[in-house]
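Can't paste images in this forum, so I'm doing it all in text. The chain is below; anyone willing to post the predicted C-alpha cells underneath?
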Amino acid sequence: MWLGVAFLLCFLTGLLSHLVQHPPAWFGWPARPAGLYQVTQGIHVIAGIAAVPLLLAKLWSVYPKLFSRPVVRSLPHALERLSILVLSGAAFFELATGLFNVAQNYPWSFYFLAAHYAVGWVAAGSVLLHVAVKLPVIRRGLTRLTPVDTARRSFLRTGYLATAVAVVATAGATVPLLRNVSPLSWRSDRGPQGLPVNRTAAAARVTVDPGWRLEIVTRTGVTRLSLAQLTGLPQRTAELPIACVEGWSQSAVWTGVPVADLIELVGAPGGSEVRVTSLERRGAYRASTLPGSHTRDPDTLLALRLNGEVLALDHGFPARIIAPSRPGVLQTKWVHRLEVL
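Text version of the structure:
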C-alpha cells in the first residue's frame, strides 16, 4: 500500500511538472503560492527515493512466486505475470533514471525528459492492470486481517526503517529543516552568492558584451534598455525560491524590475504573455514563456541583484527572470530579449 502511495505521488507530481514545463493550451499554472512548484517537485523526488527501498522490499517478499510452476495457469494469471514484468521494468527504469537525473548524470543517448515521461505512463498503466487483476486478493487482504508473525514483523520494520533513512538522508535538498541532517542531500547553500548553480556560464558558453542592451519587442517596435537604465527604474525586492526539477530548492532575496512594469513601459496590455530569450545559443531552455498569470504578479522580476549583490555571471548577469512558482529551468538566465506576445 505504501509503495502504491509513493508511485501515485510520483506520477501525479511528475505529470504536473511536465505540464508546467510544456503547457498545452488548456493548462494553467498559478503564480501563487510562490512555493507551489517547490512543494510539488520536492514531493516528486522524495516519493521516488522512498519508493526505492519499498520496491525492493516488495520484490523480496514476492519473488519466490515468480518461479512457481506452471508458468501460466490461465488468462488472468498470464495477465498478472505480464503486468508484473512490465511494472517491474518500468518502475526500475523510472527510479534509476530519476536518481541519475537528480545527480545530473546522463550515461545514455536518449532524451531523459521524453523517456521518463513516456515510461511514467507505462508504469501507471501496468499498476492499474496489476491492481485490477489482483483486486479479489487485495480485498481479502484488507478485510481479513491475519496475525503477523515475528519474522514478517521484523521484515516490515526493516523496510520502513530503510525508507525513513533514505528520505531523511536526502530530503534536506528540498526541506530546509532537514538540510543539516541530510548527509546525502545533493544541493546546499554552497555556490556563488550562497545559491547553488546547475548550469554555469562557461557550460552554457555565454559571454556578455559590455554594450549589452535588453530588447523589449512589441508589435509596434523594439525598445532597448541598458543595464544603467534598468537599474534606474523603480526596483522591487522579493524573497523567492529557486526550485529545480531535480528536486532541490532554496530561497533567496532578489531585486529587480517587475516584468509588469516593463510591459507597461512599452505600452503593451497588462497580463500579456512574454517570451524570454537568453544569450545562451544552445539548450532546450534558452527560451521560455511567462504566462499572463505570472507577468501580472508584482514579484515576477527581471532580477539584477541577488542577496543584495549584483548578479554573478553564473546566476545570470546582467539580468535573469525570477518568478514565483516556476521550475528553475524556466527561470531564464542571461536575458537578452523580452517579446510581448
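The mean pLDDT is 91. The chain has two domains: 2-181, 192-340.
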